[in-house]
Amino acid sequence: xxxxxxxxxxxxxxxxxxxxxxxGAGLALxxxxxxxxxxxxxxxxxxxxxxxxxxxxxxxxxxxxxxRWPLYFRAFPLTARGADEYKNPAYIYLLAGLFKxxxxxxxxxxxxxxxxxxxxxxxxxxxxxRLTGEDRIGVVVALTAMVTPWLFEVSRLVFxxxxxxxxxxxxxxxxHRAQSRPVWTLLDTLWLASxxxxxxxxxxxxxxxxxxxxxxxxxxxxxxxxxRIGQTWLMYGILLLPLLVFSQxxxxxxxxxxxxxxxxxxxxxLPEIAGEFLxxxxxxxxxxSLLLVGDVxxxxxxxxxxxxxxxxxxxxxxxxxxxxxxxxxEPWWQFIxxxxxxxxxxxxxxxxxxxxxxxxxxxxxxxxxxVPALAWLGGTGKGPKAVRPLFYVALALTxxxxxxxxxxxxxxxxxxxxxxxxxxxxxxxxxMEMQSRPIYIIxxxxxxxxxxxxxxxxxxxxxxxxxxxxxxxxxxxxxALVIDNIFGKRCAPCQVLLIRPPYIxxxxx
Length: 509
Prior knowledge:
Elements: H1 2-13, H2 17-32, H3 45-60, E1 73-77, E2 84-87, H4 89-102, H5 106-132, H6 135-147, H7 149-154, H8 164-179, H9 186-202, H10 206-216, H11 221-224, H12 226-249, H13 256-261, H14 270-283, H15 287-293, H16 310-326, H17 331-342, H18 345-348, H19 361-378, H20 388-412, H21 424-433, E3 439-443, H22 449-459, E4 467-471, E5 481-485, E6 494-500, E7 503-508
Parallel strand pairs: 3-4, 3-5
Antiparallel strand pairs: 1-2, 5-7, 6-7
């Protein structure tokens, strides 16, 4: 009787399936983008750098240094060695396209990150649907990805990494499509190589992770044919040629930041490096960080709970155990376990533990591993009927903890304004009111205020030529209007006009 009633309901709703799905997706998107762009408040220097260079490309085809259509974007100096940081191209050129059509704005920049995160979550649901053949498993995985703190918080930031989960899921979809065929086609290898290239040019860890994922294709050697694997590598290698040429023309440009944050040095011995790598690898898998604390950098994570939901971690671990117990012969699941393992490698090579951005591939692979557990609990004909209620219990607990996280995010997220330099717009407005040009911006080690001036000045209709970058230690001309980053110090001699820590506006005497 109950089954007949269920079938009749399904039959009644069948003609409205597409409108209902579109309405549900619209509501989910509205929820996902509700805090854009007000949470977090302000704009971090990296965000201003990315946004301003995207505007410069859209406006003139050149970056902030006048380089035409660069592959990588030179940004501000790094803190210790003085080398310049370089931004990755994929996000900046996508944002430049939006700025070209709609004009520059913080809202639009944050919208690109939000849509990228939403797209990654939806496509994870599509992948889960293809793995199980069941709509509700796909819906649950998509919803879980949307409310996972790790992915949600990254999608609030105008960082290159906000695009990375989407590129990774696109690669996994291309891989699943290829491995589902009896024989890989040339088109499959093209899609895989293109997705690996997208991963490589999206975020810095992609240069290592893309190569590791390409190496992992050997798992499919027997199924795909070694020739197809070789073709994929060849196409991927061709896509890497611009990167190799850039590295030769700009020695150290793409490795400068790595040597800022790694424990690997010329004097380090192999046993020492191996020991440090193992220690940092295990630190990055800390259950305490995953479930209770999360990333301690406030820019990346709102304190109050871990970066992953407890049920998601439990289901991911259970799914991995199921794969090892029953499905370890399947190349697809072998690759997912391999991907989960190598996703920690980029972060394990640096001194910081549990760095949200460098570990960004980890939650994607963990969410994929929840699929076997969800299918066993709630899939048709998968697990025993006695465990079916646990599927809904897991879903309810996930939504409950997600609601707690959202409450904390909306309550505490806006309080991070000082972390995102929320006082700079008022600082620049005070300087603009003085009607004195040019405005001098003190630059130097840990003083990248100039990029805020360029970006916020652009939004206010100013040109970059109205600002002068003055190296730290140089004295501004008499009566010059200056914006500086005080770092606890006062200018001398000067007339202070405004202080909004960490910024100060003054007139030199």
